[in-house]
What we know:
- The complex is a heterodimer.
- Chain A is α/β, with parallel strands linked by helices.
- Chain A has 9 helices and 6 strands; from the N terminus they run H-E-H-E-H-E-H-E-H-H-E-H-H-H-E.
- Chain A has one domain: 3-Layer(aba) Sandwich (Rossmann fold).
- Chain A starts with 6 loop residues before the first helix and ends in a 6-residue tail after the last strand.
- Chain B has one domain: Orthogonal Bundle (Non-ribosomal Peptide Synthetase Peptidyl Carrier Protein, Chain A), CATH 1.10.1200.
- Helix content of chain B is 59%, strand content 0%.
- Chain B is built from 4 helices and no strands.
- Chain B starts with a helix and ends with a helix.
Amino acid sequence: MTGASRGIGRAIAIALGAEGACVVVNYQSNHGKAAETVEAITSAGGEAKALQFDVSDGAAVEAAMKQIMTEMGAIHILVNNAGVAVNTLTLGAKDADFKRALDVNLGGTFHCTRAALRSLMRASGGGRVINVTSIVGEIGVAGQGPYAAAKAGVIGLTKSWAREYASRGLTVNAVSPGVIDTDMTASEMSETRKAELVKTIPIGRIGTSDDVAHAVVFLSGPKSGYITGQVVRVNGGLFM
Amino acid sequence: MAENIEEKVMKIVAEQFEVPLDKVALNSLFMDDLKADSLSVVELVLAIEEAFGLEIPDEDAEKIKTVGDVVNYVKARAK
Lengths: 240, 79
């Protein structure tokens, strides 16, 4: 469960923990928040532990996955959620912005899946990979070109992997959140902007992290074995 | 030493393809006899790399068709 110290990742980690999954709560720097996520899971009777590693660092990811395998024996479900928003118009953009958007959002998904694949391929009952993409990757947003590119790239990986590993009972899907109430959107959008957006959302409200978590729980479970290569949109109808 | 390599390789093959050790022969073809697909061949190469501390480049991996090929390859690299 990458990027699980806050936001959508945290909600997914808690929801999976409640379903009986033993959750590894990955975080990059927010040690305190990650510990809170673990606490939220364990105090509800679940099992969890926090593990720091930077998903954009391939070698660090390999080492971390090895450690997880040693301590927990196997990886059955991988949720690639770690992501950073990068706001920049392409006019005047810096190389570093483009690189960061790709390295964390897309590179992270690639690194983690690659490292966990051998275990996922052997998961009895079928392994599960869920990649968190975004409505931004599907329809584009002015000022978020690099982020949109990375998120769209995650969809390409999702579909390729779905085909590559189906023979091993592994399903690979993406969830595409719309506008969700998290730190990431709070920092990007003013309240007035949010109120304007709500008028365009058929369901008539901003989404919650739990809205996304419920979809991930379904896709991680034993009843979704015939669903693979799909992008499940959790956006209140904002984009269909 | 040479015999150890053969035994070790055959054990790894038996594990990877989930067949009993006595069904693994030097001339077993991965694709035909052991019902391998491209994914399981890659998995096998990875397992061999780990077991013997080697890195096997793709061009070499492509030439491996039988269990005997693996044994010979490892022996040649071990020199």
